[in-house]
Amino acid sequence: MKKAEQQFRTECLAGLHRAQALRTELIGLSARTIDEALDRYNQLLTAASSSNALAGLMSEVHPDEAIRDVARECEQEVSKFYSALALDREMYDALAAVDVSAADADTQRFHAHTLRDYRRAGVDRPLEVRTRLETIDEELTKLGQTFSKTISEDVRGIEITDPARLAGLPADFIASHPPDDDGKIKITTDYPDYNPFMTYAADDALRQDLYIAFRSRGDQGNEEILTQILTLRAEKASLLGYPNWADYITADKMIGSGERAAEFLERVWKLAAPRAEQDYTELLRQLKTVDPKATKVADWQKVWLENLVKRDRYEVDASEVRQYFPYPRVLAGLLEITSEIFELSYRPVSVIDAPPWHATVLTYDVIRGGERIGRIYLDMHPRDGKYKHAAQFPLKDGVRGTQLPEGVLVCNFPQPSPTDPGLLEHDDVVTMFHEFGHLMHHVLGGHQRWITQSGVATEWDFVEAPSQMFEEWAWRHDTLARFARHHTTGEVIPEALVENMRRADKFGLGTATVQQIFYAAISLGFHRADPATLDQLVEVKRLQKKYTPFAYVPGTRFHASFGHLVGYSAMYYTYQWSLVIAKDLLTPFASRGLMATDVTYAYRDKVLVPGGSRDAAELVKDFLGRDYDFTAYERFLVEA
Ligand SMILES: [Zn+2]
């Protein structure tokens, strides 16, 4: 092992070693008081989480492959520690002995949830069961890593020899994809290639090829890994007394059970299906303008046709819209808006004080009321071996009096250069706002005493709601006008264009929603089925037919690159579930607009700042002045 790798390994494992030492100390305590035992336990979790976060982040973003490998090893070590801790009977007994009857509500909640999670892990089961559970968790971590790694590294693509076949694609895309020495133009399955190609390329056969390449990533190899994952999860659920993994994993979530999740999906699907049929008819009509004999729309034509319908019927051409979104302006606008609505400022941190893992990463301290309340890192552009999606990664979970929250945005937006303005699709702008919503939640909510109540550590199926809600700020003229200017003329984005974009966005909502239901049904269904008899491909075909108007495309194996099956397992439904809440959270803004600071401050203080210190349903009720309901979501889904 080289020096840099050795150094990283030491740094990465430091928290874990401290956590191990704290465990020994805690078990040896004679007085099991809140200050002695619970505080130490909190420190232990904080130490372990710093190793875990650093390893989790670096395994996805470090430019050096050898360091990414060390980070993955470190992640496995931490995960092993967590599995052992979750089943640590001595620790459970020590914590259960702490008397919290006179403590504050946060402390009582921390104590009660800690013991509940211990029981959910199986700490009260016989030794041989606990041993088996530990082995299962270790195996699952390794398999999950393999599954994800394959998706990141299995970059496929198509080669084009005739440049005329790039017709329809924007000039900057063509300019950045010149033929190589052999005269071949390579288009990969990475998003900065894939998304524009599927949206704009006029060549139907090439879109089909790229679609199949994209949906073949992972392939049979990952399908086999997935079988092993599903089998181990089913065994774990059974050992813990649940009929299947879906029931086990949802038991402590807002939704409560696999059955209720399935009912929820059916309810949303029934609402969205008529709209999806209308969308499909419209796409087919559009297809017939170029191919009069067409009788059906293929999945690889959907995005391209949607763009054409939007351009023709709603006068929205995505290639025109993107002229208003050069990356540097969007970022500046996002920082300005969040400063205003949350009363914050961002102070750049010099690379000398804190050198980031890559030269393009921007670091800011977040300041509120003159005080530093956290730090954010923006790692926004693609590079080899880096995570392919957009996500917020924690680097430090905030713990009051111990450490400030630090979070990282990991995205793959085009990188501006002297010859390239780095134009974003409007979808990218929405993604940037979405992920920043997670970052704000992490930073603003990261000031609890107990780490398991810090920031985004709320119920799993609530986590997306604040981010989905914050997308709205990327959809209104009064907020967009603050930063969206044409990159050559400087013209502010016209209000009529934004209104058209909003109307156009509703086109395709039906097909997009049923597509989400299809994905959620895979995620839930795979985890309710018996893995021994589940034929994944057959099931995916069946669900696609049941829920979406688009036929399965032979040669594809979507589930083999469905990365969320690792982290979300059965819970992909959460995107739709939290959207119900997100739409409701917007109702107080209806009359006052999104920049009404009395409303944004109330939202900040009642929903984001408390983090996970109370049930999400209570926080939402506090802000809305009533329980959340389906009304706003149904209106959103049904209205034109
Ligand atoms: Zn999200």
Estimated structural class: alpha+beta
Integer average pLDDT:
95
User: What would CATH call the architecture of the domain at 326-483 and 576-638?
Assistant: Orthogonal Bundle
Task: Give a list of the ligands.
Answer: zinc ion
Taking all Cα atoms into account, the compactness measure Rg is 25 Å
CATH topological fold name of the domain at 326-483 and 576-638: Neurolysin, domain 3
Relative helix content = 55-70%
- Helical stretch tally: 26
The rough form would be described as globular
Strand order in space, largest sheet? 3-4-5-7-6
Largest sheet: 5 strands, mixed
DSSP E strands, number: 7
Question: Which percent band covers the strand fraction?
Answer: 5-15%
Unreliable residue runs: none
Describe the protein in words:
The structure is a single chain. Helix content is 57%, strand content 6%. The protein is an alpha+beta fold. Among the domains are: 122 residues, Endopeptidase. Chain P, domain 1 (Glutathione S-transferase Yfyf (Class Pi), Chain A, domain 2, Up-down Bundle); 63 residues, no CATH class; 221 residues, Neurolysin, domain 3, CATH 1.10.1370.40. It has a 5-stranded mixed sheet with strand order 3-4-5-7-6. Strands 1-2 form a two-stranded antiparallel sheet. The radius of gyration is 25 Å and the shape is globular. The termini are far apart.
